[in-house]
Amino acid sequence: AGVQSAVQQLLHEMLTQSVLHLIVVISVGAAALLLAAVLMCIGCNALAFLIDTPQMRQNAWQGTQVLCSDGATPQMVGGFKSAQLDNFTAVLMIKTAAYTGQQTLMEKALGGYRAELAAEEGQSGWEAFCTYGDGSQTHDGGLSYTRYWHGYTLPLRLLLCVMDLANSQMLLYFVQTALFAAVLLLMAKRGLCRVMPALFLAYFLIMPMAAGVCLQYAPATLVMLLACCAVLAWDEKIDAAVGLPAFFALVGLVTNFVDLLTFPLVTLGFPLALLIALRLKTEDSVCCVFARTVACCACWALGYGGMWALKWVLAGAAFGWERFYGIFTQIFLRVSSESGGEQLSRFGVLKMNLDVILAKKSYLLLMGATGFGVALASVSRMIRGAKIDMRALALLVPAAVPFIWCIVMANHSFDHTYFTYRNMTMAVMALYTLIPCIVREKEIQ
């Protein structure tokens, strides 16, 4: 009875703390921040279509031809799905970003238009799809991706105005590498060197060389790294200004704006693991750490889902409410347990995603060596008198999220295993952060 009472009291305190964190999100400052972000996103999409140069169109055409010659889904390292690119979607992104049709500014900002040209004599369907048109010919099929924001449009359009696709890819890869280095420097500054092996491993499993040059993979990866930098540099200022759950709501919102449903969970998991590791250096209680973790996850989901729902509403208002039929058809498809008329095992799909990592001996060797190293260091600290820190178990919350996501999104995770597996790196980041953080060498100062 005493144990049951203690557990009930603990759960009650955690629920109370979570509710308090969520209330912060609807404060005036947090609400103003999120509203400003939404308006800025819409403005950026509109601004993109005010920019049009002959060089942009030429680079768009040249870029689609290069991707066409490479194929729809080439592998940078043969036999590794993790190194597989999605050139099909990259072509779609270029054609969408470089569209210059005659629709109104807001129609182009919300519509996700792209020109679809009929195959010429001798052209394959793939070659026809990879033929860039400026929009004066036709926009048939251009609204098929209305359900997405296409927030990459402005930066991609600006890049195409000044350089071709290959140089744009190299610039994106450089920016990604520079941001990763910035995260490491900030971790060292904040005393999180023990967590660096977790970041190195999880980031490596994302396959940064593929995530850096593939236009579809880059947005989520860059948002993740920027969010990590923000948490490491300004977590206390963010908490004081709008609350950390509101920050994660903003991260979810921005993720949905720029991403085409690739591996969005990394923008939650990586910065959240770092935040928990930072909070273990403070006086926060077990309940407070768990409550903040749950609140941040919930608010990220609210920001991500709310931004997506807003896009559907705006698309319905701009192009007719019958578009909701297509949108909800896609939703029901992606959460279903069938593909191509065949029934899927949801847990079988989960295994497929895990196997992208676990079926490779090189990955298993790296994971095993890293796990052994950080575990040995933790055991050594315990021998020297370190204490178990139960607050670190809050990392099990983000570790569980990608498993739930994969099971719920069975159809999508089955059709696109070669990039959806990256959601699982969120669990790797959380679990390998847990190992060194579960012990603490001395009392909190």
Write the layout of secondary structure elements.
Elements: H1 2-25, H2 28-48, H3 54-70, H4 87-97, H5 105-111, H6 125-129, H7 153-162, H8 165-189, H9 196-205, H10 208-213, H11 218-241, H12 244-258, H13 266-279, H14 286-319, H15 323-334, E1 338-339, E2 342-343, H16 346-358, H17 361-383, E3 387-388, H18 396-408, H19 410-415, H20 417-420, H21 425-437, E4 439-440
Antiparallel strand pairs: 1-2, 3-4
Helix/strand-derived category reads mainly alpha
Distance between the termini: 35 Å
Strand order of the largest sheet: 1-2
Helix content: 55-70%
Task: Report the β-strand fraction as a percent range.
Answer: under 5%
Counting DSSP H or I runs of 4 or more residues, the number of helices is: 21
Number of strands: 4
Secondary-structure element sequence? Answer: HHHHHHHHHHHHHHHEEHHEHHHHE
Unreliable parts = none
Cα Rg = 23 Å
Question: What summary fits the major beta sheet?
Answer: 2 strands, antiparallel
The overall average pLDDT, rounded, is: 90
Shape: globular
